[in-house]
## 1
Amino acid sequence: MPYFGSEEMVKELKRALSNPHVQSDRLRYKNYITKVIRYMTQGLDVSSLFMDMVKASATVDIVQKKLVYLYMCTYASDKPDLALLAINTLRKDCADPNPMVRGLALRNMCNFRMPGMTEYIEQPIVAALRDKASYVRRVAVLGCAKMHSLQPNTEIDGRIVNELYALLRDPDPVVVVNCLRALEEILKDEGGVVINKPIAHHLLNRMKELDSWAQSEVLNFLLRYHPRSDDELFDILSLLDSFLQSSHAHVVVSTLRLFLHLASAHRAVQADALLRTSAPLLATCSAVSRELRFAGLCHVQQVMRSQPGLFATHYKRFFCGYSEPSYIKFRKMEILVELVNDENVSLVLEELRSYCTDVSPELAQAAIAAIGRIARTYSEKCLDILTGLLALKQDHITSAVIQTFRDLVWFCPQSTAAVCQTVEAGVDRPQDSEGKQALLWLLGAHGDQMGSAPYVMEGYIDGLKTELSSTVKMELLTATVKMFLCRPAETQDMLGRLLHYCIEEESDVCVRDRALLYYRLLQRGAEETRRVVTGPKSDPSMSVLTGRQEEPISEWASTFNTLGPLAGRDSCPQTDAISAADQPSYSAGEELLPGSEDVTLSGPGDTEEEISLSLGAPLSHESFEKMWLDLEILHRQALGVSRPRTAPDTLQASLQLEKIQTLAFTPADTVPWKAYIYTRSTGTLILAELLQGATDESLVLSVKQQPVNQHAIRRFVSVLKSVLQTLNLE
Amino acid sequence: MIHSLFLINTSGDLFLEKHWKSVISRSVCDYFFEAREKAVEPDNVPPVIPTPHHYLITIYREKIFFVSVIQTEVPPLFVIEFLHRVAETFQDYFGECSETTIKDNVVIVYELLEEMLDNGFPLATESNILKELIRPPTILRSMVNTITGSSNVGETLPTGQLSSIPWRRAGVKYTNNEAYFDVVEEIDAILDKSGTTVFAEIQGVIDACVKLSGMPDLTLSFMNPRLLDDVSFHPCVRYKRWESERVISFIPPDGNFQLMSYHISAQNLVAIPIYVKQNISFFETGSSGRLDITVGPKQTMGKTVECLVVTIHMPKVVLSANLNATQGTYNYDPVTKILLWDIGKLNPQKLPNLKGSLSLLSGAPKPEENPSLNIDLKIQQLAISGLKVNRLDMYGEKYKPFKGVKYVTKAGKFQVRT
C-alpha cells in the first residue's frame, strides 16, 4: 500500500458513491468517479468499489462511461461474476446510434480479460465487422484478436479468419492494417498471416494512404513475400522507392530492411538503397530526441559493417557534444574508430584526445581504448597521445592507458619497442586491479626490453601483503616466472620470496595452486618451464595484412531494425578481440595442453596411413617469415579449385577445424590473392602459401617443410583440397 | 506491440500506468530503476533495457520517463517515435508536458492513450483527428462544462478519416482564409578554441498553419531550391513533383502541421552568426581563476541577434564567480555549477563582455579541462542558410487567401570549446 490510511479513503468513497444525493448530482458523482480512477492509477487497491462503479456505467455521459469502463477493465479479471452485470449495459451500447459509443463499448467489452467472455462478445463483434462506420470496424477487427487471446487454446474459427482476410479490401486503411495485425495474432501458431501475391500487391498499392505507423508495419509484413520474378521484384521496389525518403525515420529504416531483404541477390540495388538512405540515417543521428539519435547511431553502425566508406566524409557528425548522454558518446566513439582514414586521422585523434579527460571515468577509458584501436593502424601518432596522457597523473587515465598498451602490444607487435620505452621511462603505478594486471603482463612478456622491469616488479612483491585481488597475485606470479626466464640473475631472489609467500602464507587456493605449479615446473628445469610458460607474444590468429573486413550485407540484414543491436545483445567483433587479449594472463595452465597433445600425437603417427595433422603451439609472424625465407619450396601444384566465395573468417575457421592454422591473408578483393597457412604433423612443420592470380583462377599451392616428410605433405594437400572443395560447394 | 506504458518522474515515483493488453505488474519497472541508479544522471539511462521476458524502451522528456513494455520483436525506432508522439500530444493538449499537468488532466490522458493505441497498435495519432475525438481542455470550455455538465468528447465521428485524403477532413469552412509558413532553422555547431568551425550544420523545418476552406491545392516554390539536398516531407507532399520540378505541391492538412524538414551540412553553406572571444584560466596556486568572454556578430546578414544566452557548465571545484557584465545579467548557481549569462540583444557598436574572477575550492587541484560554452540565440527575419520562399499559389478554390512567410534562426546545439 503506498498510502497510509488508504482503507479509510476507500470506505469514504464507497459511502459517497452509494449516497443517493451524490448520485442525483451528476457533477459531484463524476468527481467521485474521477477520484476513484486517480487512486487506481496511483496503485491503490479500489477493487472493493466494483459494485458501485458498475452502477455508474448506466449513464449518457460518455466521459463517465469511459472512466467506468477503464475501471472495470482493470479489475474485471478479479471479479468476473460482478463484471457480468456490466455486460448488459455494454451490449446495449453496442447498438447505440452514435458510432463513437458503439466503438467504445465494443472495445471495452473486448478488454475485459476474464474467462467466459467469448459467448457474450462474439455476436457483437461479428455484427460490428459489417458496421458502416469505419471507426467501429477498426475496433471490431482488433476485437477478434482479443477474443482469440481470451481462449488461446481453442481451435481457430475459420469463419472469422475468412472474414478478416476479406476485410483486407476494406476502403478504410486503418481497418486493413488492423486486419493484418489481428490475423497475425490469431494465426501465430501457424506462422502468422499469409502474404500471397494479390495481398502483397494490394498492400503495396495502398501504402500511400496509410499513416506512418501502419506503413512501417506493412513493410515488416512484406518481408514474408518472395517475388516470383525479377520483373515483379523491380516493380515492387519502384513502388517502395519514395518511402526511402520518408520523413519518419522508422519508415525509412523499415523500407531499407525490405530493400535489403528483397534484393539480396542484387548487390548493386542493395548498395544503391544504402547510399540513398545514408542521408536520412545521418539526419536521425542528429535528431532532437536523444533516443532517436541513439537508435540512428546503432543503425549506422550496422550499415558500416558492410559499407565502411559510406559515412567516411561525414565523420565530423559523430563528434560528441558536451551535454550528450554517455550511451550516445560511447556509440559515437565506436563509429569514429571505424571511420578513421589517412585524411582525417589527425582530426579524429585530436577529438578523441579531448574526450580522454572527460569527467566520467568510463567515458575517458572508452576514449583511451578507442585511441588504442586506431593505434593498430596509426601507431606513432596514437602512442604520442597516449604517452602525453600519462603525464596527467590521473589514476583512471593511467590505468586505461596501460591496459591499452597491453592490447596494442598483443595485436600490433611492431609497436612493442615504443611501448616498452614509454613504460620504462616512468609510469605511475596504476591503483586498480585491471591496470595492475596489464602492467604486470607487459613487464613479464617484454621484461627483456625494459631495464628497470625487475625493480618495478620487486615493488609489487614487497607490497604483496596489502594486495587484495587474487587475479593480480596470479598475474604477478606468471610475470615474475617469465621475467626469471629471461633475466635470472636479477629476479631469482624475489621469485624465491614470492613463491615462498604464496605457498606458505597465501589463503587464496587458486593463487597457492598457481604458485605450487610454478614451483614444481621450476624443479624440472628452466627449459621445461620456458616451454610451458612462454606463450606467443602477439595474437597468433590475427592477420596483419588485412584491415577490418567488409562483411556481406546478409550478415546483419536479419537483425537490422530490431531490438538486438540497441540492447547490446548482438555480439560485436570488438569484444571478441578484447577477450582474446585477456587470454595471456591466464595462459600458464592452458598452454600445457598443446605441448602434451604434441607428445601423444607423435607416437603412433609413424605408420604411413595414419598421418594426421595437428595445430601445435602457435607460430609467431616473425618466426614464420624467417622460416619461409630460409626454406626451399618442396612441392608446388595447382589445386584445381578456385578460392571459396565465403567470408575470410569462415575459411579460417574451417581450416582450423582440420588443424590447419591460418597466419595471414590479403583482403578479399585484392589481386593476386594470397594466404599463408601452416600445420604440424608427426614432428614436421608444414608451411604453405595459397596464391590466386586472377579472380576465378585455380589456386596455386606452394609448400615448404622442415624436416622433410613427403607423406605428410601428401596428406596435407588432400586435406586442404577437400576443405576448399566443400567450401566451394556451399 | 506496445504492451504497457509507465510514467515515472525523476525522483523515481511511478505516477501513471496504462496497459493495452493484460496487466503487467509494476515490478517490471525494477529493471528500469536498476538502470536508472547505475546511470547516475537521468540523461544517461539507456533507451533500451533488456529484461528476461520483456524489453523496456524508455524516452526521457521534460523530466518524465516514458517507459514502455514490449513483449515481441518490434522496430525500435517505431516505438521511440511513437512515445515521442505521445509526449507531443500531451504538450499539444495541455500546453506543457509535465507531471503536474498530466496528474491534473488524468482523465483526458487516459482518453488519449485509449484512442492512440488499441491492443498495443497505434490507432489515431494525428493531432487534428484526436482533437475531434477528444477536445482539448480550455479555460472557457471547462467553465462551460462545469455549468452545463457537458463533456469534452466530440459528439460526431471525425469526418477526416472517411475522405479520400486521410489528413484532411471534408467540408472545411473559414471566413478568413489564411496560410502562414514559418521557416525555422537551427544551427548545430561546435567551434574550437581559436574560433574555427569543427562541425556545423543547419536543421531546418517549415511549420505551416493553413486555415483554408474547401479542398485547396497549394504549390510552394523556393528562390534557391538547390540548397536543399536532404529533405523529408509531410505525407501530403507530392514527392514526384519535387523530384522533377523542385516545387512543393500539396493538399494541406487543416490547421497546424510540419510541411517539411531539411538538413544542410555542407560546411561552407553554414554561416556562423556570432564569434566568441573567451579566456578561461585557472591558476596553479591560490585556488582562483579568471574568466573573460566577449561576444560579437560575425555573419548576420545585417539582422540583429536577439535572446543571446551563454551557459557554462563549470568544473565541480568552482565555488563562486565574481564577475562584471557590461550588458545583461549573469547568475552562477553553486549547486548545479552552471553559469548563465543572459545578454539579450547583441549591439554591434558596444560588444557585451563578461569579466572577473572565479574562486575555487581551496586545496583542490586545478581542473584539467576547461568548460565549454553553450550558446543560445535567435535571429528574426533571417534563414541563415539563405533559403527563401519564392511564391505560394493556390488552385482548386475560388477565393483569395491571405499568405505570409516568417523566417527565424535559432541556435540548436551550439557549443564553443575553450
## 2
Amino acid sequence: QAAWCELPSRVLLVLTSQRGVQVRPGGDWGVPRGVGPSPWVTQTCSLPAHSVFARGIAAAGGRFICVGTSSGAVLVFDIPPKGTNVTLSEVLEQHRDPITDIAAEQGQAPDGAGDLVTADDSGTLCLWSTEEEFTLLGKIPGSGSTCSSVTLWNGIVAAGYGNGQIRLWEAGSGRIRAQVSAHARWIYALDLAPLTGKLLSGAEDSFVHVWKLSRNPDTDDIEIQHCHAECVTDTQVCGARFCDPTGDTFAVTGYDLSEILCY
Amino acid sequence: MSARTLPLLFLNLGGEMLYILDQRLRAQSIPGEKARKDEWTDVDRKRVMNDIISTMFNKKFMEELFKPQDLYSKKALRTVYDRLAHASIMRLNQASMDKLYDLMTMAFKYQVLLCPRPRDILLVTFNHLDAIKDFISDSPGILNQVDETFRQLIETYNCLSDGEFQLIRQTLLIFFQDMHIRVSIFLKDKVQNSNGRFVLPISGPVPWGTEVPGLIRIFNHKGVEVKRAEFTTAGNYVTPQREGSFELYGDRVLKLGTNMYSVTRPVETHMSGSSKNPASQAKENIVPNPLAKEELNFLARLLGGLDIQKPAGGETGFRLNLFTSDEEEEHAAQTRPEELSYKVINIEATQEPGRRAELSRILGELEVAEPRPGSAEKGEDLLALMDEL
C-alpha cells in the first residue's frame, strides 16, 4: 500500500509491504537528481514479530502517522517537523483481526466524536481521539462482513464492506445512520472529498459510484444520496480516488489494468 | 500475501489439467479390440488418470503442500506439473505441455476472477475434487487419498474469515496478473474478449450474503428507519437461490470449477504476445538462478517424494498430442512467442556437496528421455528411453 500523508509541517509518502513500513519525505518530483547519493532519506521500520503485513495508513493528530498490521495492532509513528528521526511512539491494541483501513477526520468533528477511525477484517470499527494521547472513544462491533475501507468526515464514518454495503455511522454515538446496498461485490475503495462531502466507492463489480453525504447541524440528520454511477467494463476496480478536494474529478485503477482512468 | 494459498493453487490447476487430459485421451481413444499397439484405449486412459491422480494426492506431498508457505515462482510450479503430467505412461512434447499449462492457468485465473465471494474459491476447489473423485470412482485406494485431502481442506479453510479468503484471492490474482492468453473455448462462449481479457458480467445472482444494489436506508439518531430511497444502475442483478455446500458431499451450486470440456469441443489456444508490458515478463526471464535456495530444497523434496512410474520393459510409453495433428504441434513449438515461453527449470545443484549428491540422485531417478521431435509412434519413446539406459 502507499499513501501520501499530509502533516502541517511536511508531506510524506508512506509505503507498506511484507518487509515493513517505509516513510519517505515528499520531495520535489520535478527536479532531476541524476546519479549519485540518493536524495531520498528513508526510514524503514520492521513489523512486530507476530505481524505478517502492514495495511492501512493515515496521518493523525498533526504529527503522527498510523499504520495498521495483520495482527490487529496499529503502529503510531511520531514524525518530527524536520529530519528523519521517525520513532514508534505507541502501539494501539484494540483490534483482534488484521487491520484493513485507517482514516482521519477530514472535516470538522463535532464534540466528542473523535478524529481517527480504524477498521479490521471482522468489520469492527474503533474510534479514537488523538488529542493528548490516543484514547479509544468507542467500538462498533462487526456483523459478519469485512470492513474493507473507511472514511471519516464531520463526525460521520463511511464504511465499505466486503458484501458490497456502505454504512454510515455516527462517530460520537456509534449508531448506524444509513445502510446502502451499494455494490454487488467486494468494495475495494472509498474516498471522500472534504469540501463537498462527496463519497466515491469502487468495487469488484466493475462499478464506481459517486454519493453525497450531508449532515444537518441543527437537526443532526445524516443523509446519503446517489449522484452518479460509472461502469468500468470488464474491470474489477481496485482503487478509486478523488483528484481534488471538491470531488470534481476522480481516478480509477483496476486489476490487470496498466492504466489509470480519469473521470 | 497469504501463506495458505499454495494448496488451492496446486489442486485447482491440477484439476484443470485432469479435465484437459481426460478430454484429449477420450478424443484420441479407440475401442479396445480395434486399437493398434500404438493407439490409446479406454483402459490406457483410465490408467493414466489413476496414475496422475494417485501421484497428485500422495500423502507426503500433501503434507508438505499444506504447510504455510509462499507461492512458488511460475517456473517452479510449471516444473511440478511437467513431472506430474509424466507420472504415467503418457508423454507430452514441449509444445503440448506448453499448451496444457496455458489452458490450465487461464481456466483457473477465470475461476478466481469470477468467484462471487472470496470464500467461493473453496467451492471451486471442491468442484474440482468432486470431479477427480469421479475419475477414479472405481479405485477405492486412490479415492481414500482424495477424501483425506478433502478433509484436510475442510479443516484448514472452512474456519477462515472473509478477509483471509480475500487475501488468498489477491495472492492468486497477483500470481496470474498480466496473463492474457486467448483460449478458443472461452472466446466462443464469449467469456473472454479478443484482447484476452475476461468478460465480467454485470447481471445475474449476487453473491450469497450480498443484497441486490439499489436501496438506501436512512436511520435517525435513535436507530429507527425514517427514510428509504432507491437508485438504479446499468447492472441487472437478482437474489441468489441458495448457498453452495462446504461439506464433503453436497451441491456446490457454483458452476465455476466444473468440467467445461467435452469430447466434441477441441481445446485450442491462440498464441498472442498479449502482454502490454513485455518488459515485466522479460525481467522474469533474465534472472540467472530462477530458484531461490529454499524453493530448490522444497522442490527437490517434493520431487523425491513423487513416485514416478517409468515404462517397464514390455509396456509402451504413449505420447499425447494436445493439438489436432503432429504438424500443428510442431508448428506451435516453432512459432511460440518468446515472451510466452516457459523456461522450464534445469535444476542446478547447489554449492553444498551433500545437497548436490542428493539432488543428483533424485534427478537421476526422474530422468525422462525427451521424445525425438516429429516422432509419432507411441512405442518409439520407450525405445529411445531404453537406448539411454
